[in-house]
What we know:
Among the domains are: 3-72, 434 Repressor (Amino-terminal Domain), CATH 1.10.260.40; 278-354, Serine Threonine Protein Phosphatase 5, Tetratricopeptide repeat (Alpha Horseshoe); 356-449, Alpha Horseshoe (Serine Threonine Protein Phosphatase 5, Tetratricopeptide repeat), CATH 1.25.40.10. The chain is built from 24 helices and no strands. It has helices spanning 3-22, 27-30, 37-44, 52-62, 66-71, 75-93, 97-108, 116-132, 136-147, 157-172, 176-192, 199-215, 218-235, 238-254, 258-272, 278-294, 300-317, 320-336, 340-353, 359-375, 379-394, 400-415, 419-432, 441-448. The longest helix is centred in the first third of the chain and has 20 residues, at 3-22. Keywords: DNA-binding. Residues 16-69 form the HTH cro/C1-type domain. This is Helix-turn-helix domain-containing protein. Pfam families: HTH_19, TPR_16.
Amino acid sequence: MDHTKAERAEGLGGRIRTLRIRRGLKQQDLASAEASTSYISLIESGKRVPSSPVLATIAEKLGTSPEYLLTGIDDHRAEEYRLKLAFAEMALRNGDNGEALQSFGELLSNRSALDGSMIRRALIGQAAALEKTGRLEAAISVLDDLHRDPAIAVGSDEWCRIAVALCRCYRDAGDIALSIDIGERAVAQLDGLGLETTMDHIQLGVTLMGSYHTRGDLTRAQLLGERLLPAAETQGSHGARGAVYWNAGLVAGSQGRLSEAIALTERALAMMAEGDNARHAAMLRMNYGSMLLQLDPPHPERALELLESAQEALAEVGSASELSRCELNLANAEKQLGHWDAAAAHAERALGLLGADSRVLSALARTYLAEIHLLRNSPDEAVQHLHSAARQLRQQPASHDAAQTWRHIGDLWRQGGEQDEALKAYDMALTAAGLARTRAPEAALIDRR
């Protein structure tokens, strides 16, 4: 018997003995055809754990419930815990992330009063609240433990939610390689069940597409999208179809096919509008606004409308990372409109939302602030932000986002007349994009001698 089972048996046996004595009963009074008097003695001493039928018989003779004997919590208190868990989950859905985090923490501080299912629900909720408040490393720690829990069956709803969240959190924390590894293994495990492509496949697939996109592996992202789209159409879920079109739009945008990207995003928005996922709809509006800013010529006025609408929704239901991305897009829109104070305010808000786990986004926020300071003719402040951005990016693995930010930094150094710094940033952009440095010609000549 392992340590956890021993503790449970000891507590169970003690409660049976206490109630038996309190009611003036002897051990033989609890005996039955399934449990002898000696077996009751072993249960009370913590040396045996009764089966469910035996426990039910003992509970009936003691005038209590099996749940109380197992947990020490009466039915009234157990219902209180169930209501508290439902309240915490509702707070999370409503965007009250701090309140939800506190409620989940209080529940988990009394684990002995919860059954396994309630503990897992509370842990999944706690991880989601940590993610939404920008505490990615803490969320990953909880999700990693859940992902290894043998009690969670592969292919179950719980398992899928955990795999999707873990893939997404590692991606947002900058560990793209591990995010992709988790996503690919999860998809392979689902495939191994021999099922047709399900909603779980689609949820995992679109998250994996996002990780491919972040790494800059656009071909693989596009191929995965082409596999998922027919399945999403078959499933008939507006949300599933919208999610695939959404990610396909991101890939097309990164490949420079902006007209196609906008068309795909508009289609995804139309599908999401028929559902009730406010967070996904807000993120789509954010992506749409971002694409309008990349057009030639850009459309900052229309982009600003979309982004302000997305910001309002994400402030309630989005994560810190998602809201900060929206703030950065708003900074870009205001900058293009010549509203430098408003642009700086949005970039500062983005920086304030981000914790130590989101270095790429923090670097991007500082790059926007550097650009605004250059436009204001404040080169000293711009230089400080550029150096800070570079320091943060150097701590991050290669990714598409990192390469884009390095390119932005290089362009700003070049505009400021700092050619050497610009070349360093461009070199880092190439490395982040996956292009290794070539060997110097003199080194090759030395090898030939």
